[in-house]
Specification:
The protein contains 12 helices and 13 strands. The chain is α+β, with helices and mostly antiparallel strands. The two termini are 35 Å apart.
């Protein structure tokens, strides 16, 4: 495996970044997102494209990119049609002099709320709501005094092409699907039937950097997601395996890119400028965050059982031994959970 086959790249171009800066065409959008608690940014890039996205909970309402010196404002077809039906001028290819669509975008948020279009993504106060709260607390609304700063959401390791991804990721994914199959065979009533057929994604909910310079790989769950909680060691194990493989192959490239992401996010205002400059260690620490943790639920006990079974399968009692688990509440407090 070489850096030519796998990469981590999330920094956007200076041209796209500048649109968000003070005095520029989309700085109003930055101010709007910062002021409205239901919204949050995601910026990122890969080898073929770059974007600035605005989310409400887990749904993306804006995806902004550059196309031949013009700006493409996009979203899922559902929202394109919704805006058109409401007579709102938001989406499409626009000149950089035609980016002040704040009034129509705010009106769209009002309509979506009235029509209950975002209830399952944010307003039901489940996973999307708390992800948004968490991301803003350790990102755009951070003071710089937090223990860590979120630097990426829906974070992925990229691949040079489909062949490289199939050769690596598919094989890695199969290892963890086999574990899920084994769990079904042990006790289908407890762990679930045919759970190996469920998708195992490659997007980490959050990457963060702590004040010691370690990278935190964060999987985020809501307390009502019983299955998601007790199967999380498998999902986290897959993410850790991928990221650790990449870091072993090109540690400096990873740290350089993380450093550039932090620098850019501070410049835009997505990380507080008061967050200290850290010396990156290249160390990855896995973390599970459970919003509205329910101590009466059996999910966390079953989580411990799944973790134990995984260690038995790998014949490694130290597997995910550095995993940190926290509960998170609406008062924005993180409390460590022993396991």
């Amino acid at each position: 495996m070489t850096v030519q086959e796998m990469y981590y790249k999330r920094v956007i171009s200076n041209e796209l970044q500048q649109l968000l800066m003070d005095g520029r065409e989309l700085h109003w959008l930055y101010n709007l997102v910062r002021e409205r608690k239901e919204l949050d940014f995601l910026i990122g890039s890969n080898n073929s494209q770059e974007w600035v996205s605005v989310y409400c909970g887990t749904t993306r309402l804006l995806r902004i990119s550059l196309k031949r010196n013009r700006v493409n404002i996009a979203a899922d077809h559902k929202y394109l049609k919704y805006a058109k039906d409401k007579g709102l001028d938001i989406y499409g290819i626009r000149e950089t002099t035609d980016l002040y669509f704040e009034k129509d975008f705010v009106q769209m948020l009002v309509y979506l709320r009235q029509d209950n279009q975002l209830d399952r993504y944010y307003y039901n106060k489940k996973e999307g709501y708390f992800q948004n709260l968490f991301s803003r607390q350790f990102g755009i609304n951070g003071t710089g005094h937090e223990n860590f700063a979120v630097i990426d959401k829906e974070a992925v390791i990229g691949y040079q092409d489909i062949r490289a991804k199939q050769n690596y990721f598919s094989e890695k994914q199969d290892i963890f699907k086999t574990i899920k199959k084994h769990l079904s065979e042990i006790d289908a009533n407890k762990y679930g039937r045919n759970i190996s057929k469920d998708a195992l994604g490659n997007e980490v909910d959050f990457l963060a950097v702590n004040r010691s310079g370690d990278v935190l790989l964060i999987e985020f769950k809501h307390g009502s997601s019983t299955k998601g909680i007790y199967l999380s060691p498998i999902q986290i194990g897959l993410y850790c395996s991928i990221f650790n493989d990449y870091v072993r192959c090109n540690r400096q490239d990873f740290m350089d890119n993380i450093g550039e992401v932090i620098k850019q996010k501070k410049a835009i205002g997505l990380i507080s400028p008061n967050f200290p400059k850290v010396s990156l260690t290249g160390k990855i620490i896995p973390m599970l965050v459970i919003a509205q943790f329910n101590p009466k639920s059996s999910a966390f006990d079953t989580f411990g059982e799944v973790l134990k079974i995984c260690r038995e399968i790998f014949k490694d009692n130290t597997w995910l031994s550095d995993l940190e688990v926290y509960e998170y509440d609406e008062q924005r407090e993180l409390k460590r959970l022993p396991y």
